[in-house]
Automatic annotation (TrEMBL):
Residues 8-122 form the Response regulatory domain. The lineage of its organism: Bacteria, Bacillati, Actinomycetota, Coriobacteriia, Eggerthellales. GO terms for cellular component: cytosol; protein-DNA complex. Residues 132-231 form the OmpR/PhoB-type domain. This is Response regulator with CheY-like receiver domain and winged-helix DNA-binding domain. The modification 4-aspartylphosphate is found at D58. Coiled coil: none annotated. One of its GO terms (molecular function) is phosphorelay response regulator activity. PROSITE patterns: OMPR_PHOB, RESPONSE_REGULATORY. Gene3D superfamilies: 3.40.50.2300, 6.10.250.690, Winged helix-like DNA-binding domain superfamily/Winged helix DNA-binding domain. PANTHER family: REGULATOR OF RPOS, TRANSCRIPTIONAL REGULATORY PROTEIN TCTD. Keywords: DNA-binding, Phosphoprotein, Transcription, Transcription regulation.
Length: 235
């Protein structure tokens, strides 16, 4: 089955600040191919030359609107599309879905909601295997849906957003090495200058899931390369 994180994502948004936020958010969650467009014309060129696997489409664009853009795109492409709009009226939502949008999300949105909806649309479309919802780590269970960590004695903690992104990336490659650069990219959207910060967040994550964070059984350091999430705690 196809890895949804190999999908090419096109962000169509005319507000540069919001466009950068969405692109960084999507890249931080693990999508490796993300491009953007700020106008209908730029979007159509990108679609024709790059063939994105999914699109996040703003409604209000300087040279048109997302509804008309989607209508045009649907003549040649069935790539999944999510309308991202400040308009939350039922009429606008129904119009978008009627034109072939796969989902509709209103601004302001929760960052986690946006990436979860994007992942869900891609899984439905391309049949990628779903990430595990519950991750068993010895006496500790992590619910990636809620970010809750629960131990056998009933105690628990909640992962921060960065800890969640870090663990999610390790889970996707469980048993294999994930480089430090790849982890930093998943958490911050870039690998440059985050080596020390990554070590700090790995330490904090270990404190929440390991019996002895100084002698980890699950999140293992692979010296000179990165980290590996053990499959069974036997290292």
């Amino acid at each position: 089955m196809r890895d949804i994180y190999d999908a090419r994502i096109l962000v169509i948004e005319d507000d540069p600040s919001l466009r950068d936020v969405i692109c960084e958010l999507v890249a931080r969650e693990g999508w490796r191919q993300v491009r953007h467009a700020g106008t209908v014309a730029d979007a159509l060129r990108a679609i024709a030359t790059w063939s994105p696997d999914a699109m996040l489409i703003d409604v209000m664009l300087p040279d048109g609107n997302g509804f008309d853009l989607l209508r045009t795109v649907r003549q040649t492409s069935q790539a999944p599309a999510i309308i991202v709009s400040a308009r939350d009226e039922d009429e606008a939502r129904l119009r978008g879905l009627g034109l072939g949008a796969d989902d509709y999300i209103t601004k302001p949105f929760l960052p986690r909601e946006l990436v979860l909806r994007l992942a869900a649309v891609l899984k439905r479309t391309y049949g990628a295997a779903a990430e595990p919802h519950l991750v068993a780590l010895g006496d500790c269970t992590v619910d990636l849906g809620s970010g809750e960590v629960t131990r056998a004695d009933g105690s628990g903690e909640t992962l921060t957003a960065k800890e969640h992104a870090l663990l999610s990336r390790l889970v996707r490659s469980r048993g294999s090495i994930v480089t430090s650069d790849d982890l930093a990219q998943a958490v911050w959207g870039t690998s440059f200058g985050y080596a020390n910060a990554l070590m700090v967040h790995v330490r904090r994550l270990r404190e929440k899931i390991e019996d002895d964070p100084s002698d980890p059984q699950w999140i293992l350091t692979v010296r000179g390369l990165g980290y590996r999430l053990a499959k069974d705690g036997s290292r």
